[in-house]
Every structure is written in C-alpha cells, then in structure tokens.
Amino acid sequence: MPVRIFQRPKNAMQSGQALLGQWILEFAPAEARKPDPLMGWSGSGDTQAQVQLKFDSAAKAKAYAEKHGISATIHATPPRRLKLQAYADNFK
Predict the structure, then answer these.
(1) Are 25 and 48 a contacting pair, CB within 8 Å?
(2) Which distant-in-sequence residues (6+ apart) come within 8 Å of 55 by Cβ?
(3) In 15-87, which residue ranges form alpha helices assigned H by DSSP?
(4) How far is C-alpha 37 from the chain's CA centre?
(5) DSSP code of 13?
(6) Average pLDDT value over all residues in the chain
(7) Does the pLDDT at position 36 exceed 90?
(8) What digits encode the pLDDT tens for the residues 37-75?
(9) Quick one: DSSP state of residue 73?
(10) Can you give the pTM of this predicted structure?
C-alpha cells in the first residue's frame, strides 16, 4: 500500500508559522469512494485513507515507511516567493 509524505501547506487564512514544520504520512485510497444509497454521502470501506501520521522531519517519516515495508513517495515543498512592494505602488 503506497503512501505519500508531504509537508503541511500554509492555510490562506494563516499568517503565523504554526504546524508548518510537520511532515504528514498519508495512505493512498485502496478503493474508490461511492455514494451511500440512503443519504447520498460519499464513502468507502477503506479505513487506511483516514490515517495521517505526523513527523518532525521527512527523514523520520521515510524511516517509518521503510521499517514497516511501505513504499513511500516524498513530495518536496516548493520554495516560498515573497513579493515585496510598497503600499504606494498600488497607486502608480
């Protein structure tokens, strides 16, 4: 069962740096989601899709996956680009 390892993205409403250093190990879905006949909510019998393990570094998450024989793919975080401009630039 493959997993993906990624760093938590920054929320659009978040200005601080809380929880940005965490790396998440998330299992891939084993079966497709289907609508419930009674309520219409989508769901599946796959309980592994609900599991998210949190680690301090990508190396620790990779070591956990290797220890348990899980194939892992690490998704690197793209570098942040800051656009610095003055408030007066809005009126040019």
Answers:
(1) no
(2) 22, 23, 24, 25, 61, 64
(3) 58-67
(4) 30
(5) T
(6) 88
(7) no
(8) 889 898 888 888 889 999 999 999 999 999 999 999 999
(9) E
(10) 0.73
